[in-house]
Amino acid sequence: MTEPVLKLSGLSKAFGALKVTDAVDLDLRPGEIHALIGPNGAGKSSLIKLVAGELAADAGAIHFDGREISDLDQISRARFGLTRTFQVSSLIPEFSARGNVMFAAQARRRSVFGFLRQVISDKDLVGDAMHALDRVGLADRAAVRVSELSHGEKRLLEIAMALAMQPRIFLMDEPMAGLGQEGSARLIGFLDKLRSEAPILLIEHDMEAVFQLADRISVLVSGRIIARGTADEIRNHPEVRTAYLGEDAA
Ligand SMILES: Nc1ncnc2c1ncn2[C@@H]1O[C@H](COP(=O)(O)OP(=O)(O)OP(=O)(O)O)[C@@H](O)[C@H]1O
Fold first, then answer.
1. Does domain 1-81+170-197+210-250 have CATH number 3.40.50.300?
2. Which of 20, 202, 210 to probe ligand 1 with, by most ligand atoms within 8 A of CB?
3. Can you give the pTM of this predicted structure?
4. Ligand 1 binding pocket mutation candidate from 44, 55, 221 (most atoms within 8 A of CB)
5. At what angle do helices 151-164 and 180-194 cross, to 10 degrees?
6. Using one digit for the tens of pLDDT, what is the confidence trace for 117-153?
7. ipTM of this complex
8. Domain 85-167 in CATH: superfamily?
């Protein structure tokens, strides 16, 4: 079997008495979309923050490309290509869409080229930014200020910024939220192709999107993985149906 790019082993985190991540084992293989689903407050976002290095784990290990990265900070992890999708809250509203993506492209070039950073030209960054905007269908909105973009466009801009970072894996926290039916359908098509470039760990409440996209689904309830399988396996899993899908399993 192909070696996973990302591997979490016995990962645990508590806020006081609340165990948000309880001995979680999870991996992400090349080319796959692994969805993480679960009810509100199950600990999905916390798990992504642990992987990105925004939160420090209490116990367990994170391996990325076979190397243990548990003790690395967020910036060092980003340098290895492990970064989570930007969030609307981290966009710079006064900058244009292109300006925001240039910012992400610059961060990537700096981390890759290190001491050559002074020779990174605006032309390179504009090229990188326009390419990423074009891929998410925002090229004609490049010069528009973020504050004037619709919510759906801001969500696509987050993805463009992630693309400009050229990560080795994508960590996505509810990318479909607020996109509307047409926007979601377009993003589903895009993510479906994106997985061949870099695998995606996907948190998503839109179950239609999850069942359509995910190669594997892990179900998190109260910080614990209670089930893992393909879309069909999860759809028909009795414990999942009661605990999460809100159905009577009987
Ligand atoms: N910094 C923090 N300090 C204390 N408690 C926190 C902190 N961050 C999250 N929590 C709590 O941890 C639990 C898990 O939160 P988390 O955001 O990871 O869940 P989630 O599954 O992503 O939820 P949602 O689907 O609603 O986004 C929640 O009860 C939340 O209130």
1. yes
2. 20
3. 0.89
4. 44
5. 10
6. 544 567 778 898 999 999 999 999 999 999 999 988 8
7. 0.94
8. P-loop containing nucleotide triphosphate hydrolases (3.40.50.300)
